[in-house]
Design goal:
By secondary structure, the protein is an alpha/beta fold. The chain has one domain: Oxidized Rhodanese, domain 1, CATH 3.40.250. The protein is 41% helix and 15% strand. The termini are far apart.
């Protein structure tokens, strides 16, 4: 009987996410609703990590440009106020934004979220 109880508890924890961030999609990105919530509640900085040419062709209103190929300590600090700032990165398909998230994490930025593709943004 005790064994069944323990197994039941383990199953319940796993079904509830086992402590994972329920705001993340299965691919590690966040959805539009959560991104907007972060922008409203935490003054999140929206960062477009595509090229300057792509950014100039069109971007999400209010997004700042920080091309993934140019991210380093200096360029990041010019766009992102502090390493404690909440940051949301996006690109065209989600590949560069996941790279940018990793680079920013490696530079010590602690609250970086990946929106993935620009098309995930709903107006």
């Amino acid at each position: 009987m005790k064994r069944i109880f323990v197994i039941s508890v383990i199953i319940i924890f796993c079904l509830c996410g086992c402590g994972t961030d329920s705001k993340l999609n299965s691919d590690g990105t966040i959805d539009y609703v959560y991104a907007k919530e972060l922008m409203i509640n935490e003054n999140a900085i929206l960062v477009d990590v595509r090229s300057e040419e792509e950014y100039n062709e069109g971007h999400i209103d209010g997004a700042l440009l920080l091309p993934v190929d140019n991210i380093n300590e200096d360029s990041a600090s010019e766009v992102i106020e502090s390493k404690d700032s909440t940051v949301i990165v996006y690109c065209r398909s989600g590949n560069r934004s996941s790279q940018a998230l990793q680079i920013l994490n490696d530079l010590g930025y602690e609250n970086v979220y990946d929106l993935g593709a620009m098309s995930n943004w709903e107006e």
